[in-house]
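PROTEIN–LIGAND DATA SHEET

This sheet pairs a single protein chain with one bound small molecule, NAP, given as SMILES. Inputs appear in the order they were entered. The predicted three-dimensional arrangement of chain and ligand is reported afterwards as a token string under its own label.
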Amino acid sequence: MDLDGARVLVCGGGRRLGRAIAEDLAASGCSVAVSSRSTVEPVAVRDGRSTAALTADLTDATQARAVVVDAATALGGLDGVVYAAGGAFTPTTLEDITPELVEDALGSVVRGLIFVAQAAQQTLADGGSIVVIGDVAGMRGWPSYLPHSAAKGAQRALVSGLARSLAPRHRINVVHPGTVLPPDEVDADALERIVTRIPLGRIGAPQDIAAAVRYLLTADYVTGTELVVDGGRMAQ
Ligand SMILES: NC(=O)c1ccc[n+]([C@@H]2O[C@H](COP(=O)([O-])OP(=O)(O)OC[C@H]3O[C@@H](n4cnc5c(N)ncnc54)[C@H](OP(=O)(O)O)[C@@H]3O)[C@@H](O)[C@H]2O)c1
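PREDICTION REPORTED AS:
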């Protein structure tokens, strides 16, 4: 796939990391649709490219399927999907976990991806590709973020299975970012402690993740793989 002129949907492209990825793809010459639960502005695209902003709650199977079809309608077809939606990233102790936190994590991370992939199988052009934004938290369960870690861990198995379901027409891969845009609760001291555990000495920039997404969207012989982009944190 050539990104210049490709048509890509970024689920969770309303803000923060998903937004940065959508803007990076637009700068690379893609037509881009972003989807979000709340209403958002479309991203600016190059002349001659299409842009769209869609609203869908991906925990709802009907809306998750429909957003893929709506993106293809808005862009005149679909070559790629970036699945960047994630549930709330809320620290909790084991005793404070509620059913709602678990539902939110599994709904936005796992359930939504299943139905987006189901619709993508019918909608993506030949050679089309899905890139999932996972999390290193899914590789080693984080005790303060158990619902999130569990959902991201389940997403890894899902990507592996979907790679075989979608082949040979379509591909799917996952990028696991380390810390890139920390939540507001992470103060300067906590951030410094995180950085001491990162061999490359800094947290990630959104552009580091966007570059990995661009690679996986265009890597025609790569499917079912996991690309860790964390400055070496998981290498320890
Ligand atoms: N930020 C980091 O440093 C980091 C590190 C590792 C992994 N990640 C992963 O990267 C992804 C993006 O991270 P982020 O920090 O930018 O997340 P975020 O600030 O929570 O933004 C998530 C985006 O996904 C949308 N979304 C969430 N649940 C949805 C649902 N059920 N239906 C539709 N849209 C939904 C949100 O829409 P609304 O705003 O309308 O709710 C928002 O646009 C997540 O999967 C996260 O786990 C992030």
